[in-house]
Design goal:
Strand content: under 5%
Largest sheet: none
Low-confidence stretches: 1-10
Number of strands: 0
Helix content: over 70%
CATH class of the largest domain: Mainly Alpha
Number of helices: 18
Number of domains: 3
CATH architecture of the largest domain: Up-down Bundle
CATH topology of the largest domain: Growth Hormone, Chain: A
Structural class: mainly alpha
Order of helices and strands: HHHHHHHHHHHHHHHHHH
Oligomer: single chain
Length: 466
């Protein structure tokens, strides 16, 4: 009995170390995404970037991450998730250092794409490692902690990014990643010796399918960035045709990069992934819209805007672990659906924003949104990972990340399209403030409808036979 207790305690300690290592990687990637938003102006000035080039600072990262998430998830299932995760952190760390010492816009954007590649390796394996290492009865709690870590990175990014930029310049945001990355690599190598997860070991990697998938997805995401121009619509349609060809090809080969049976024969997996896409499509643009609203309609400075907008991620950080733990005891699909309901209730009142709307009203909406996202994210992730075999954990983790990134691009695509139709190619100011507020209301109507549809998509996976 004493020996069993010792082994059990050793396993617990080991799992804590695994959670710590995974959390380091899951923190630095979203931290980087949100921190970059506060340094766009100084980067623009130093490198003399025009608006199109500046857009590629974010787009190059998102494109690389989205394209490589699923292929790297599959490689991790075959060759080892810890190997892929450690390599991802090493690449991300090296790219961060190279971004910090870049001397031109071309160098900087190129290294941002390499950062995105490293991020794909981290995000495509981090959740898979946690799902592999922890038993089913603890999985929801641990995934809830991982989601809270992601939200913590997103919320601290602008805050710490602003402090670092003001004190040490914009390059310090990239340099601060280096010690964290080195620590995560060394910790994983020395503290997790002998730990590896590769249930698909020995299977072949589908390079052709990966190329079709990567080209098609990058075409779709680039199309979103080109809206509302005709070329944007054409590229999105072309990319969708490519995804259809990819699905047909994958169904015919023995060792696909993405097993289509995951979607065709697993209702929980299918509708959980669709719910992820809808959720991020409905919510990602909220922070961007409210940031513009608070600055142009309310005339607040960036510091005050940051204080107001941080309310939502703080609520998510607090409640995500609790929602995850709750999903270990109740059906995670039910809890995630409740999250979609709250998300819709948080979005709906924002349709009625005006110049005179009170801050309490706005912060109340953000609290409801934060609670809704907390209830949705970790239980939904738990539902996805629990619904697949162990050998598909890497691919499933990659698909979650891909749905999130495509949803984010779709959300911003909606904003770009509506702004182009209502405001046009002019700066937002007092002369068009009323038009800006009206266009924002239309966007919130669209986002609310998305979220409302998401409720039924989330509930659809709870029918008998799932």
């Amino acid at each position: 009995m004493h020996k069993q207790d010792t082994v059990k305690n050793a396993n617990k300690v080991n799992r804590v170390l695994i959670l710590f290592v995974a959390s380091l990687g899951l923190f630095i990637s979203p931290f980087m995404v949100s921190a970059v938003n506060v340094i766009l102006r100084p980067i623009e000035k130093e490198f003399g970037m025009n608006a199109i080039l500046l857009n590629w600072v974010a787009t190059s990262y998102l494109l690389a991450a989205a394209v490589f998430l699923v292929p790297f998830g599959r490689l991790a299932d075959i060759y080892g998730r810890k190997k892929m995760y450690v390599l991802g952190i090493a690449i991300f760390t090296a790219a961060s250092l190279l971004c910090a010492i870049s001397q031109s816009s071309a160098m900087f954007i190129s290294f941002r794409a390499v950062q995105g590649l490293g991020s794909a390796m981290i995000l495509g394996t981090g959740v898979a490692i946690l799902t592999s290492a922890f038993p089913a009865e603890e999985r929801g709690r641990v995934l809830g902690i991982s989601v809270a870590v992601v939200y913590l990175g997103l919320s601290l990014g602008p805050f710490l990014g602003g402090i670092l930029t003001n004190g040490f310049g914009w390059r310090s945001i990239f340099l601060v990643n280096v010690p964290f990355g080195v620590a995560a690599v060394l910790f994983a190598l020395y503290k997790l010796k002998g730990q590896e997860w590769a249930e698909a070991r020995g299977e072949k990697f589908d390079l052709t399918g990966s190329l079709i998938y990567g080209i098609s997805l990058s075409t779709i995401m680039y199309g979103f960035s080109m809206l509302p121009r005709f070329l944007g619509y054409f590229l999105i349609a072309l990319g969708m045709v490519g995804i259809l060809i990819f699905g047909i090809y994958e169904a015919k080969i023995k060792s696909p990069v993405l097993n289509t049976a995951l979607f065709l024969k697993n209702k929980v997996f299918l509708f959980s992934c669709i719910a992820t896409l809808i959720n991020y499509s409905a919510t990602f643009a909220v922070g961007y819209l409210l940031s513009l609203y608070l600055q142009y309609a309310k005339d607040f400075d960036s510091r005050m805007v940051g204080i107001i907008l941080v309310v939502q991620p703080v609520v998510q950080v607090i409640f995500s672990p609790l929602a995850g733990k709750f999903s270990d005891k109740k059906k995670p699909q039910i809890i995630a659906s409740m999250g979609m309901v709250l998300t819709t209730l948080g979005l709906f009142p924002l349709i009625f924003l005006s110049k005179d709307t009170s801050l309490l009203f706005i912060m109340g909406c953000l609290i409801i949104l934060g609670l809704g996202l907390a209830l949705f994210s970790s239980p939904n992730t738990n539902a996805i990972m629990t619904s697949v075999e162990r050998k598909f954990y890497g691919v499933a983790s990659g698909i979650i990340g891909t749905m999130r990134l495509v949803g984010q691009m779709l959300s911003m695509g909606i904003v770009t399209l509506v702004f182009a139709l209502y405001i046009g190619k002019v700066q937002i100011g007092s002369q068009n403030q009323e038009i800006f507020v009206n266009s924002m209301k239309l966007i919130f109507i669209i986002l609310t409808v998305f979220s409302f549809v998401g409720i039924f998509t989330s509930l659809a996976r709870n029918e008998k036979g799932t």
